[in-house]
TrEMBL record:
Residues spanning the membrane: 9-29, 35-54, 75-95, 101-122
Organism phylogeny: Bacteria, Bacillati, Bacillota, Clostridia, Eubacteriales
Gene Ontology biological process terms, A to Z: polysaccharide biosynthetic process
Provenance organism: Massiliimalia timonensis
The UniProt record lists the keyword Membrane: yes
GO CC annotations, alphabetized: plasma membrane
Topological type in the membrane: Multi-pass membrane protein
Family statement drawn from the similarity comment of this UniProt entry: Belongs to the GtrA family.
Pfam families in the record: GtrA_DPMS_TM (PF04138)
Protein name as annotated: GtrA family protein
Domain GtrA/DPMS transmembrane: 11-128
Length: 132
């Protein structure tokens, strides 16, 4: 059963760890260092994207690029999609926390759930798509 759902299980595991990296970084910067919401979110996003790229490439999708061009395409596609989901995360945090004054930690969790789902779809269907 594990082999049948290996990719999804690993993505959820590493997606959860990526979310933990994102959430812990945000909480430390926003609540311990009192950085602004948007700056804390941006730094948390950057660190979590680096973690996600490495884990997704090596363990989740087992991507083996054999040319520099393929590696660059994959890396650029990964980061482009993460920029999109990162901007979405920033907008959600800004609107919900700074404009609507909702609880930042609750919104951060909800935003990350949406981001993880979108990122899986991008990775599976476009970035690490198996070549036939």
């Amino acid at each position: 059963m594990y082999n049948k759902y290996k990719e999804i299980i690993l993505y959820l595991l590493f997606g959860g760890l990526t979310t933990l990296v994102n959430f812990a970084t945000y909480a430390a910067l926003a609540h311990l260092l009192h950085w602004p919401t948007v700056l804390s979110t941006a730094v948390a996003w950057f660190l979590s994207v680096l973690f996600a790229y490495i884990t997704n490439k090596i363990w989740v999708f087992e991507s083996r690029t054999n040319t520099l061009r393929a590696l660059l395409r994959e890396t650029l596609a990964f980061f482009a999609c993460r920029v999109f989901s990162g901007v979405l995360d920033l907008l959600i945090m800004w609107v919900c926390v700074d404009l609507l004054f909702l609880n930042d930690l609750v919104i951060k969790i909800l935003s990350n759930v949406l981001v993880v789902i979108l990122n899986y779809l991008f990775s599976k269907l476009w970035i690490f798509k198996k070549q036939s």
